[in-house]
Amino acid sequence: MTQRMLSALALLTCVACAEAPTATYADVEPILAENCMACHAEDGSSGVSLDGYQAASSLSDRMVARAVDAEGGAMPPSGLVLSAEQEELLIAWEEAGAPE
Ligand code: HEC
């Protein structure tokens, strides 16, 4: 392999690294606000609060299960689905241990 190809590869690897940042609650909160809070506010109709960091982080694995994998019934139940980008953020946050 030539030196030039090697540096191109190194560059690509760095770009991939930069594109996989760890998501924090600040990234996830707007997604929840837009898609989930209608039913999952503190006194929401679902009876399950995802409001605020404590509530959301304690259910991060269930959020991925329901909103990404539709396991046990899709969330939101309305037929609306998260965008691929929103799903990736939610998964990245969950996998990082749901950091604040
Ligand atoms: C139209 C109302 C509505 C919306 C919008 C909604 N949910 Fe739900 N959700 C419910 C109801 C009702 C339940 C309780 C019954 C059940 O579990 O299906 C529930 C339960 C849950 C649970 C707990 C149950 C479990 O499987 O552990 C999670 C987690 C959840 N929803 C995540 C989400 C996420 C994430 C979003 C947004 C992407 C969302 N929901 C949007 C109505 C909604």
Secondary structure blueprint with pairings:
Elements: H1 3-18, H2 25-35, H3 37-40, H4 53-58, H5 60-67, H6 84-95
Helix pairs in contact: 2-6, 5-6
The structure holds heme C.
The site of heme C has 19 residues, from helix 3 and helix 5.
Characterise the protein shown here:
- There is one protein chain.
- With 100 residues, this protein is mainly alpha-helical.
- It is 57% helix and 0% strand.
- The chain has one domain (23-95).
- The longest helix is centred in the first third of the chain and has 16 residues, at 3-18.
- The mean pLDDT is 89.
- The site of heme C (HEC) has 19 residues, from helix 3 and helix 5.
- Residues 35-36, 38-40, 46, 48, 59, 62-63, 66-67, 72-73, 75-78, 82 line the site of heme C.
